[in-house]
Structures are given as structure tokens and as C-alpha cells.
Design brief:
The protein is mostly helical. It has one domain: Orthogonal Bundle (Hydantoin permease). Strand 1 and strand 2 form a beta hairpin. Helix 4 packs antiparallel against helix 5. The chain is globular. Bound molecules: tryptophan (TRP). Tryptophan (TRP) binds next to helix 1, helix 2, helix 10 and helix 14.
């Protein structure tokens, strides 16, 4: 079966960045940072990203590019035995993530609609909060929007790898980045007491760091970088063989963290300036932004643009999630590509609707009093992705022939290994897996 390949260096970067930059940066990072002490969270987040996540990303890209097939098949090709289950775990994680991700994508569609009709104009921050609460409680609205959000990404995936996704990302990523920069300037220079928000995010406070912070930061890092589930592995399989993987990966990690931090610099000054709660959880982004646009000159237009781009950021990621599950279905179950996409999207629309309805406050789809949405959100990032990442680095470091790893990381097989390669291999073989294992063992009380 012919596989697509990314056409250019910019195209590769933009596409991988398009998968990586998404609601994880704009919505999830600020809300977790708000709940976990701001700067303390950021600091742990950055360390974990470099020492634990970067090696996982290199492992995924290397495995994927050396095998050029879906995650499960890649594991089977390299080693017999149960390793293919890692690929399976990844497909399951992609499935769980899409189910709540499409709901948040739907929220941005709703806020886009509300911005266009000027729903928020003249409303106080309490009234804005009320609007969102009522929307969630309604049930039907969030469900329909989530389904629309999924449907749009389905169309992109069916159009094919290079044509559909790559073209999309090359335009939208830069636009999103520029808009965020404008919003950062507005938050920093035009809001009263903006320094409180900046201090919250940047002034280190080591006392706030707990084991739970470390786990949450690691989960967020995996989530934000699309790791631990074979998505990067699938993308790696489309990267042409003359690209430099370590450079690509480092660029992606840097860009991704930058977008997350900038997003925090938009939101936290506003949170303090409008007297909102930084610890309110998943609703943080959506309750904060409309207040900003009310105060901003040209806020009406910026609001539309912002929610449009948030939605696009969500779509590019959703496309990648769907792609991961669909590539698996079409190559393993030998389904036609469009049929596989459709079947996958249909099942996702059921679980996605359940997630949307679980937040209505009516007690639907709650387990032990917790909405399915929250359970999917935390279980996928805090358990499934780190677990997947753990097995992926183990696989790349210890199971995959080291000549394959070396040739992927250095683009050459015979030279005596460079110092960069030696360091990277050390991170892959020891630092990353030991860190994840220790954290898990400590959390479940074994250590
Ligand atoms: N990284 C995406 C974000 O920040 C979310 C995500 C997690 C993802 N895993 C993925 C996207 C796999 C695409 C593929 O929003």
C-alpha cells in the first residue's frame, strides 16, 4: 500500500507542530498550571519535557521512520512477542483522548458562534461564567458542537495525508502564533495588575511542588507533545529519510513549550485582573478569554479570530488522533481508507457524546461522582500515555537493534557515534524509563 510522505522541511515541521500544538497548550496547560501552583508547575514541566519526553519523542520518530507503517505493525516487525500490545495501548489512548478532545473542540465552536453574534458584549465576568455553565448544563448544545467538530476533522483525514493535513497546517500555525503574540502584548500592557499573573506563572515557588505536581506535569508534557500513544510514531513513518530527527524533535519541544507559556501569559494576567479563579479547572480558558476581548479595542474581531484559531488548533490535533486510529484500522483490518475513517469516527461520536453529556450536572455518565470527561482526561494523560511512553523508550533503547536507533538518530550507520548520539541514547535507555518507573512506583506506594 502506498504511503504518503511529507514534501518539505517546513511541511514536516508544520505538520508535526500542528499535531502537537493544540488544546493541550491553549486550554489544558493553563488550567493545570492554575490548579498546581503556576510557576512551580511550569518549572517541573520544562524539566520533565527535556529529560523524559524528548527521549520518548526520539524513540517514536525512530521506530516509525525505520518501519514506515502503523504503530502496532511497527512493533511486530521489529520484535516478536507482546510488544505489539504497546501499539494497541496507543490506539486505545488515541481513542479515549479524541472522545473528550472533540468536546472541547465543540466548546470553541460554540464560543466562535457566540462571538459572531456578539453574545458576550457588555456582559460581566459572572454573566459570562453563567452563560458557559448554562450551555454545559443544556447537554444538547455541547453534544451537537462536539459532533460537528469531529465531522470536520473526518473530512480532512479522508482527503489524505499530504494534501489534506499539510496544506492546512502551513497556513494556520503561523496565524495562530501571531495572534497569540498580539494577545500576550494586550494582556501584559493593557490590563491592570497584569504583573500578578506574570509573577504567578514565572516566580518560582518550590514549596508548591509535590509528587502529584510531577505526575500531572509529566502527563501534560506527554499529552501536549502527543507522546506515548504511537501518534508520533505514525508521523515518523511519513518523515523522509534525510531529515535530522534530533533537530526536528528539539525544535518541536521548544516550540510546543513556548506556545504553552505564551498561552499562560495571555490568560493569567487576565485571571488576576478580572478577579477570576486560577484554580477553576477545565473551564479556565473559556471563562477568561471573553473578558479580555471586551476590554480590548477591536475585541469583537479578535474574539472571532481567536476562537476560530483555537478551533483550528484543535482540528489539526484531532486529525492526527483520528489518523492514528484510522491508519491502524485500515492497515490491520484491511479496510479501505475512507471506510476505516468513517467507522472510527462513528464509534468516537458515541463516546464523545457521552463525555459531553457527563458535564451537564445531571449525573449522566458519571463514575463515582466524577464525570466521564474528567476521567478520560486524567486517565489518558496520567496513566495511559506515561505507560505507553515507558514501553516505547524501553523498546527503542533495549529491544530495537541499536544500529537501527543509531541510523535513525544520526542518519548514518558506520561512523563512530557522535557525542550527541551517546547522550541521547543514555537518556533513552536510562533516564527516561527510570524516571517514569520511579514516579509510578512511588505514587502507588511501592517505594
Ligand atoms: N498534543 C495535542 C495537544 O496539545 C493533543 C494530543 C495528544 C494529540 N495526543 C495526541 C494530538 C496525538 C494528536 C495526536 O492538544
Amino acid at each position: 500500500m502506498a504511503r504518503g510522505e511529507f514534501n518539505s522541511r517546513i511541511g514536516t515541521f508544520a505538520t508535526v507542530a500542528g499535531s502537537v500544538v493544540g488544546l493541550g497548550n491553549l486550554w489544558r496547560f493553563p488550567y493545570l498550571a492554575g490548579e498546581n501552583g503556576g510557576s512551580a508547575f511550569l518549572l517541573v514541566y520544562l524539566c520533565v519535557s527535556l529529560l523524559v519526553s524528548l527521549p520518548v519523542m526520539l524513540s517514536e520518530l525512530s521506530i516509525g521512520r525505520s518501519q514506515r507503517c502503523n504503530a502496532m505493525r511497527a512493533f511486530k516487525n521489529i520484535a516478536p512477542g507482546p510488544w505489539f500490545l504497546v501499539g494497541f495501548l496507543g490506539v486505545a489512548a488515541a481513542y479515549v483522548i479524541t472522545s473528550f478532545y472533540m468536546v472541547v473542540g465543540g466548546w470553541s465552536l460554540e464560543f466562535l458562534r457566540a462571538s459572531v453574534v456578539g453574545e458576550f458584549s457588555g456582559k460581566s465576568s459572572d454573566e459570562i461564567k453563567n452563560y458557559f455553565d448554562l450551555f454545559l448544563a443544556g447537554g444538547t448544545g455541547p453534544t451537537l458542537q462536539a459532533l460537528v467538530s469531529l465531522g470536520i476533522s473526518l473530512v480532512v483525514v479522508v482527503l489524505g495525508v499530504s494534501k489534506g493535513i499539510e496544506r492546512f497546517n502551513k497556513i494556520l500555525m503561523p496565524a495562530l502564533f501571531v495572534l497569540i503574540l498580539i494577545l500576550v502584548c494586550n494582556s501584559l500592557f493593557c490590563l491592570p495588575e497584569s504583573w500578578k499573573g506574570v509573577a504567578f506563572l514565572l516566580k518560582p515557588d518550590f514549596e508548591k511542588i509535590s509528587l502529584q505536581t510531577v505526575l500531572t506535569a509529566m502527563g501534560q508534557s506527554f499529552f501536549s507533545l502527543s507522546l506515548g500513544m504511537g501518534a508520533m510514531l505514525t508521523y515518523g513513518s511519513y518523515i523522509s529519510s534525510d531529515r535530522n530527527l534530533p533537530k526536528t524533535a528539539l525544535g518541536i519541544v521548544t516550540f510546543d513549550s513556548l506556545v504553552a507559556i505564551l498561552s499562560g501569559m495571555v490568560i493569567f494576567p487576565a485571571v488576576f485582573s478580572f478577579g477570576l479563579e486560577p484554580t477553576q479547572g477545565p473551564t479556565l480558558l473559556f471563562n477568561t478569554m471573553p473578558n479580555i476581548f471586551q476590554q480590548m479595542p477591536g475585541g469583537y474581531g479578535f474574539s472571532i479570530l481567536f476562537f476560530l484559531l483555537v478551533y483550528f488548533a484543535a482540528v489539526t490535533s484531532q486529525v492526527s488522533l483520528l489518523e492514528t486510529v484510522a491508519a491502524f484500522a485500515s492497515e490491520e483490518l484491511r479496510m479501505k481508507r475512507w471506510k476505516a475513517c468513517l467507522a472510527v469516527a462513528l464509534t468516537m461520536s458515541v463516546t464523545g457524546s457521552m463525555c459531553a453529556l457527563s458535564l451537564s450536572g445531571h449525573g449522566w455518565f458519571e463514575i463515582g461522582g466524577k464525570p466521564l470527561f474528567d476521567i478520560f482526561d486524567s486517565v489518558s494523560s496520567n496513566v495511559m500515555l506515561p505507560l505507553g511512553g515507558f514501553f516505547i523508550v524501553l523498546f527503542a533503547g533495549w529491544i530495537m537493534p541499536s544500529r537501527v536507533l543509531q541510523s535513525q538518530l544520526t542518519n548514518s550507520e558506520n561512523e563512530s557515534p557522535s557525542i550527541n548520539y551517546v547522550v541521547l541514547r543514555f537518556l533513552i535507555r536510562f533516564v527516561s524509563p527510570i524516571f517514569v518507573a520511579l514516579l509510578f512506583l512511588t505514587l502507588i506506594g511501592v517505594i
